[in-house]
Amino acid sequence: GQQEKKLGIALVGLGSYSAGQLAPGLVNTEHCYLAGIVTGTPAKEKQWMSQYNIPKANVYNYENFDEIAKNDAIDIVYVVLPNSMHAEFCIRSAKAGKHVICEKPMAVSVLECDAIIEACNTAGVKLSVGYRMQSDPYTNEIKRLVRKKTFGDVHYVSSDAAYVSRGNPDQWRLNKSLSGGGALLNMGVYSIQSNIYGTGMNPISVAAQEFSTMPEYFKDTDETITAQMQFPNGVVGNLFTSHNANANRLFVSFRKGWAELNPCHNYGPLAGRTSEGKEIKFPHKSQQMLQMDDFAKHIKTGSTNVAPGEMGKRDMIICEAIYQSIREGGKTVPL
Ligand code: NDP
């Protein structure tokens, strides 16, 4: 029956994340499998077809992609392209009648997020954002401590999401027309996410500052951003994101203790501890496997969509407010 059938996923854009994480994750998924590919690089077609046993009928390029509408083997399209291409391909996927997973950041503007959500609603297909941390057990343990008030109410969260991204100066992440922004859109969204699950609330305002120690290299996109978020009840959140430092941590301060994940936002295994001296520890599993199974289960059974399009849009609203605050000299921007 429908409940037992594995859903077919087509990956769009066979770059390092598709090849290094998503395709290997799909080898072990229970509710979905790698059924098709969409690529602009003909050499990748043969290699992927043989490596993952993909029939020629399930291989598309960016031009003939819309024909995927006629292919019943594909239930879900997973858009893993540079950020400025997300909206176009998510909308084309929805119009083809396919459920959509959109990589983070969801798009390069709130307007584009709205257009994606609208296209999926109109087509009657499900939509989620590639927020693998929402399916991770360490993250869910932090959410549980917050919800259960194990250490009382949260009053402060600090989260860093940064890595040194030098190397190739021609990479699309440093090109604003393809990335939409620098460290904030690439890594800052993780810090926004952990500020929100670390407090269990949405921020009500944000103030931000931008720095660059290598403006000759980071010409087009933000290198380093810090931001302070205010949450209801006087709760404060702190964000650090950079393409020129390594930091990967969440610290949640409660009235009667604290919890910490370090590392917090990478592919794992993550590590954590609490003020009681207890380690937070779970068996390591592929986050991508858990994430794609969560979405396939949502489609098949109506279980919770843990990373819906509205969540991607919410985070993009915060990103736009952070950029606005920077443009306005660090002014507090209400959300
Ligand atoms: P890559 O540069 O490694 O791959 C992007 C792929 O997109 C290319 O290989 C290419 O695939 C296709 N593409 C089509 N047009 C272009 C273009 N003009 N320039 C560059 N590539 C193009 O990027 P990533 O795989 O690292 O990132 C892709 C997306 O996934 C981004 O949105 C990123 O934010 C997200 N991501 C998410 C992660 C997570 O943990 N959730 C981790 C890493 C990335 P082809 O040759 O098949 O056409």
Distance between the termini: 45 Å
Give the overall form.
globular
Strand sequence of the main sheet, in spatial order? Answer: 14-13-12-11-7-10-9-8-15
Tell me the name of the CATH class of the largest domain: Alpha Beta
Give the name of the CATH superfamily of the largest domain.
Dihydrodipicolinate Reductase, domain 2
Q: How many domains make up the coordinates? A: 2
Q: How many DSSP helices?
A: 9
Mean pLDDT: 97
Largest sheet: 9 strands, mixed
Order of helices and strands: EHEHEEHEHEHEHHEEEEEEEHHE
Question: Which secondary structure elements does this structure contain, and how are they paired or packed?
Answer:
Elements: E1 7-12, H1 16-26, E2 32-38, H2 42-52, E3 59-60, E4 76-79, H3 86-95, E5 99-102, H4 110-123, E6 127-129, H5 137-148, E7 154-162, H6 176-179, H7 183-199, E8 205-211, E9 224-230, E10 236-242, E11 247-254, E12 257-261, E13 272-274, E14 279-280, H8 287-301, H9 309-327, E15 333-334
Parallel strand pairs: 1-2, 1-4, 2-3, 4-5, 5-6, 7-10
Antiparallel strand pairs: 7-11, 8-9, 8-15, 9-10, 11-12, 12-13, 13-14
The protein binds NADPH dihydro-nicotinamide-adenine-dinucleotide phosphate.
The site of NADPH dihydro-nicotinamide-adenine-dinucleotide phosphate has 21 residues, from helix 1.
